[in-house]
Design a protein that fits this description.
It is built from one helix and three strands; from the N terminus they run E-E-E-H. Strand 1 (about 5-10) and strand 2 form a beta hairpin. It is globular, with a radius of gyration of 12 Å. It starts with a strand and ends in an 8-residue tail after the last helix. The chain has a three-stranded antiparallel β-sheet with strand order 1-2-3, with helices on one face. It is α+β, with helices and mostly antiparallel strands. It has one helix at about 35-50, and strands at about 5-10, 15-20, 25-30. The chain has a single domain, classed as YegP-like (Double Stranded RNA Binding Domain, 2-Layer Sandwich), CATH 3.30.160.160. It is about 25% helix and about 30% strand. This is DUF1508 domain-containing protein. It comes from Nocardioides jejuensis. It holds the Pfam family DUF1508.
């Protein structure tokens, strides 16, 4: 099973997303967004940015 993004409303009424690995562990959390649609667009931006991304030691 692949990982998944979860979009949810936090206690402050803002929308956020978290990326969960196949084992259910949270591996990334997004910033807060005013709307659910904006949070979904945030997940799409992460997917685009991660495609082909390299790992760089700093």
């Amino acid at each position: 099973m692949a990982g998944k993004f979860e979009v949810y409303e936090d206690k402050a009424g803002k929308f956020r997303f978290r990326l969960k690995a196949a084992n259910g562990q949270v591996v990334a959390v997004g910033e807060d967004y005013e709307t659910k649609a904006a949070a979904i667009k945030g997940t799409e931006a992460v997917q685009r940015a991660a495609e082909g991304a390299s790992v760089v030691e700093v």
